[in-house]
C-alpha cells in the first residue's frame, strides 16, 4: 500500500472539481474510497447526561478520515478506561464526503517516455476528507457533571490527533 502524503497537500479549503452524481456518466470521480471511520456514535446511546462538551474548529480546513478515526479511537479508549462503556456518549459530527485525488508523476530514469506530465492531471482518488468550517463542531461528548475533568482530558487527546486548532466548549444540559 502506498504511503500517505503529508496533509499540507490537502488542507486547503478551495472547492475542488470532484463531482459525484447518481448517474455514472456525469461523475467526474469514478470511484470514491471507503470511509475509515468505523462508528460515529459511541458509548451509551440511550442514557441521559447533563454536561455537554464540544470540540470546535478554529480554522476552515479539510480533515482526512484517518485523522478523525485516530481522534475517535484515542478519546474512546481513554473514556472507556476511566468511565466504562456506559458512562459517556461520543458523537463524531462531521462526515468525510470530499474525495482527495493525487496525480502521480513517474519518476526515475526513462520516465519521460511514458509520462504525460500535467496534460491529464485530474488524478486518481486516494482518500476522503471532511470539509470543516470555522466554528463548526467536530465531535460532541456527553457525560455527567461529576466527570467533567475526564471528558476534558479525553477531548484534549482527540484534539492532538487533528490537523487544526480546536477549542473545547462546555454546556450544561437543562433537565
Tell me about this structure.
By secondary structure, this protein is of the alpha+beta class. The chain has a domain at 32-99 and 121-172: Ribosomal protein L16/L10 (Aldehyde Oxidoreductase, domain 3), CATH 3.90.1170.10. 18% of the residues lie in helices and 26% in strands. The chain is built from two helices and eight strands; from the N terminus they run βββαββββαβ. It has helices at 65-83, 148-160, and strands at 41-43, 51-57, 61-64, 89-92, 98-102, 124-132, 137-143, 166-172. Strands 1-4-7-2-8 form a five-stranded antiparallel sheet, with helices on one face. Strands 3-6-5 form a three-stranded antiparallel sheet. α1 (65-83) runs antiparallel to α2. It is elongated, with a radius of gyration of 20 Å. The mean pLDDT is 84.
Distinctive features:
single chain; Aldehyde Oxidoreductase, domain 3; alpha+beta; 175 residues
Q: Layout of helices and strands, plus pairs?
A:
Blueprint: E1 41-43, E2 51-57, E3 61-64, H1 65-83, E4 89-92, E5 98-102, E6 124-132, E7 137-143, H2 148-160, E8 166-172
Antiparallel strand pairs: 1-4, 2-7, 2-8, 3-6, 4-7, 5-6
Helix pairs in contact: 1-2
Amino acid at each position: 500500500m502506498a504511503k500517505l502524503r503529508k496533509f499540507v497537500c490537502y488542507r486547503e479549503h478551495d472547492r475542488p472539481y470532484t463531482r459525484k452524481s447518481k448517474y455514472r456518466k456525469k461523475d467526474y470521480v469514478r470511484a470514491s474510497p471507503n470511509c475509515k471511520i468505523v462508528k460515529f456514535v459511541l458509548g451509551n446511546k440511550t442514557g441521559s447526561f447533563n454536561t455537554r462538551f464540544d470540540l470546535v474548529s478554529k480554522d476552515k480546513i479539510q480533515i482526512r478520515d484517518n485523522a478523525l478515526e485516530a481522534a475517535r479511537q484515542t478519546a474512546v479508549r481513554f473514556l472507556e478506561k476511566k468511565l466504562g462503556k456506559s458512562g459517556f456518549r461520543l458523537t463524531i459530527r462531521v462526515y468525510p464526503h470530499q474525495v482527495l485525488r493525487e496525480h502521480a508523476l513517474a519518476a526515475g530514469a526513462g520516465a519521460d517516455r511514458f509520462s504525460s506530465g500535467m496534460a491529464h492531471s485530474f488524478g486518481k482518488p486516494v482518500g476522503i476528507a471532511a470539509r470543516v468550517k470555522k466554528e463548526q463542531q467536530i465531535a460532541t461528548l456527553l457525560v455527567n457533571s461529576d466527570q467533567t475533568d475526564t471528558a476534558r482530558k479525553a477531548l484534549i487527546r482527540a484534539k492532538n490527533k487533528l490537523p487544526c486548532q480546536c477549542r473545547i466548549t462546555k454546556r450544561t444540559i437543562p433537565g
